[in-house]
Structure formats: C-alpha cells, structure tokens
Specification:
InterPro entries: ADH-like_C (IPR013149), ADH-like_N (IPR013154), ADH_Zn_CS (IPR002328), CAD-like (IPR047109), ER (IPR020843), GroES-like_sf (IPR011032), NAD(P)-bd_dom_sf (IPR036291). Its EC number is 1.1.1.2. Its cofactor is Zn(2+). Belongs to the zinc-containing alcohol dehydrogenase family. It contains eleven helices and 18 strands. The chain has about 350 residues and is α/β, with parallel strands linked by helices. The chain has two domains: about 1-170 and about 305-355, Quinone Oxidoreductase, Chain A, domain 1 (Alpha-Beta Complex); about 170-300, NAD(P)-binding Rossmann-like Domain (Rossmann fold, 3-Layer(aba) Sandwich). Helix 4 (about 170-180) crosses helix 5 (about 200-210) and helix 4 crosses helix 10. The radius of gyration is 21 Å and the shape is globular.
C-alpha cells in the first residue's frame, strides 16, 4: 500500500490496487481505491485470494441496482492480518482470516444480539454499500482491506487459503440451510444444481452424514458429483427422474437461479419435507398451493449465516478436510472469468490470486 494525498477532511487515506467496474455494465479495470486508516478495533488484511461469486456479476453490471461506482466486487476474501488496532483482542498479526458478505451491523438490534447479523436492517455489505462513515465500501478484488475485528473470521490451518476463500459466501450459503434443517445420518438430502454453490452443498451434506443426491440438468457432471460425496446423481431433464424419486427427500436445497417447476420438485419431498432456495430467480414464480398443503411441505428461502455460524462452518470444513474446488486466475482474467461463469464454464469457483493485481 502507498500513502496518497489527504482527503477533504484532512484524514490520511491509503490507496490500494484493485479491479473495479468504473460504471454500470463496464468491464472491470485495474485502478486504485482508498482504504480507511486502521482504527482502534480494526485489522488490516493483506488479501491473498478472492473468490468470484455470481452475485458479483449481477452487481457489477447493475442488474440488482442501483450500484455505486467505481465498484470493487468480492465478498469471498481470504488473507493474512498485517496490522491491528490498539484495542484489537480477537486477531494478531500473521493470523489467517476471511471476510464474507458483510463487514458491519448495528450490533444492537434483536437480530444482532441473537448472532444473526445477516438479518440486521442496518448492516454494511462488503462492497457496493456505504459504511458508518458514509464512505463507499470496496470488496475483495484488491490487495488489502480494513475490517472491524468482529467481522473477520479465523481460517483454520486445515484449509488452504485459496480453497477457503469461496467458503466465505458459497460455503456458508450451503452450510446454513443444511445445519438449520438438520441434514445428517438418516436424512435424505438433494442438492439441485452442481455449480459453485451446489458442489459445496454436496461436500458439506456428505460430511454431515446425510444420504446425498444431486439433481442436475444433465449427467455431464456425474463423475464429479460422486467424487465429491454424492451417493446418487440424476438428470432433471429426464421426466423419469421425478417419477422415480417422488416422495424421497427430507430436504432439497436448490442452488439454481432459473425458475423451476416448483410443484414438480415439491413432489420429490416426503411429508413435512423442506425445499429451501438459495438460488434467486429474477422472475416471479407460480405455485399451486396444494403442492404444499398435501403433505404439509415447506417452500423456504435461506441466505448466508451470521458471524458465529460462519466461524462454525469454517471449523467444520477444516475438521472434515473440505475446501472449494477452484480454478485460480490472474487479475487480467477477471472479465473473461465473468463470461465463463455465465456460460457455466467453471469447475467450480474462480479464485483471483490478488498478488497478480
């Protein structure tokens, strides 16, 4: 990092190298962005790796708008603490840490007090948001970030940093519903979609002890699914799949962002089974309520976890030897990687080596 000129408030700022979308729908370019000075309870993290999440693409291209530009995406961050504030007690220099989808919350509301900071109405997203100081937040496609110590997660030694980065979004996104609906021995769990999210669901559900089935559009990724821990693999393009598996599952977690025939998938559940969605189709869905009423079934949504649950997920993954399946790229390959994500041409998560920025 290099010092730059003073801001209008005469507070020293630091600039860091980053890749940013300078305008809506613009390609990402190499640039610099400011980082705040390290405060009393802050840690400075040298980012080593940053995962590319599909939501990065949506936001960089202003599809969830309105976006704040320049925008530095990235909320799957893994790195090393290089400086701590005078009041920091949770981390020391040299610690391996991660940062996920948010970097602050109000800390006072019912949700924050319950350890469910992800539901805080006044939380601060890691990028494309504004902090308490009113300044824009910039994400992980950069060399360094300054974060309050309470929102930096400890990455156990059992996980390589590059494979750990996607756990900060993809990992917790799948761990949270699997834990909440108690995937484990004796439970039959289906993961819909075998991509960046889905492959983590297969690994985690298998490690929890559930009987795991992948429901994918085709059998193209069957070998991967079985290798990663699935017991069964079915193609949803085959109508026989829905006949053969009717009434089979305790829990289905859908990771796809395309509209599904929800009645057909609900038909795969046992009575009182749950279909939890972590993929978010942009289009409204149609649903005949009898597909829920008959069998007392639940159609649910799930997002990420809070700080405590995210740490629990990281510890769980370390103890079971779980990391993401990754393809490491250089900074100048980010725009190409975006196009490949949209074409489903990645197995299964792109991770930026930030030393190449």
């Amino acid at each position: 990092m290099t010092d730059t000129t003073l801001s209008p408030t005469t507070t020293p700022v630091t600039s860091v190298t980053a890749y940013a979308a300078l305008a809506a729908k613009a390609p990402l370019e190499r640039t610099t962005v400011p980082r705040r000075p390290v405060g009393e309870h802050d840690v400075l993290i040298e980012i080593k790796y940053a995962g590319i999440c599909h939501s990065d693409i949506h936001q960089a291209r202003d599809e969830w708008g309105p976006g704040t530009y320049p925008m530095v995406p990235g909320h799957e961050i893994a790195g090393v603490v290089t400086q701590v504030g005078s009041g920091v007690t949770k981390h020391t220099v040299g610690d391996r840490v991660g940062v996920g989808c948010f970097v602050d919350s109000c800390r006072e509301c019912e949700q924050c007090e319950a350890g469910l900071e992800q539901f805080c109405q006044n939380g601060t997203a890691t990028y494309n948001d504004h902090g308490r100081d009113g300044e824009p937040t910039y994400g992980g496609y950069s060399t360094h970030v300054v974060v309050d110590e309470g929102y930096a997660l400890r990455i156990p030694e059992g996980i390589a940093l590059d494979e750990a980065a996607p756990l900060l979004c993809a990992g917790i996104t799948l761990y949270s519903p699997l834990a909440y609906w108690q995937a484990g021995p004796g439970k039959k769990v289906a993961i819909v979609g075998m991509g960046g999210l889905g492959h983590m669901g297969v690994k985690i559900a298998h490690a929890m002890g559930a009987e795991v089935t992948v429901l994918s559009q085709s059998l193209r990724k069957q070998d991967d699914g079985l290798r990663l821990g699935a017991d069964h693999f079915y193609a949803t393009s085959d109508p026989q799949t829905f006949e053969e598996l009717a009434g089979t599952f305790d829990l289905i977690v859908s990771t796809v962002s395309a509209p599904l025939d929800f009645a057909a998938y609900l038909g795969l559940l046992k009575p009182r089974g749950v279909l939890a969605n972590v993929g978010a189709p942009a289009e409204p869905i149609e649903l005949a309520l009898f597909s829920l009423i008959l069998g007392n079934k639940t159609l649910a949504g799930s997002q990420i976890g809070g700080i405590a649950e995210t740490q629990e997920m990281l510890d769980f993954c370390a103890s079971h030897g779980i990391g993401a399946e990754i393809e490491t790229i250089r900074g100048e390959q980010i725009n190409e990687a975006y196009e490949r994500v949209l074409a489903s041409d990645v197995r299964y998560r792109f991770v930026i080596d930030t030393a190449t920025l």
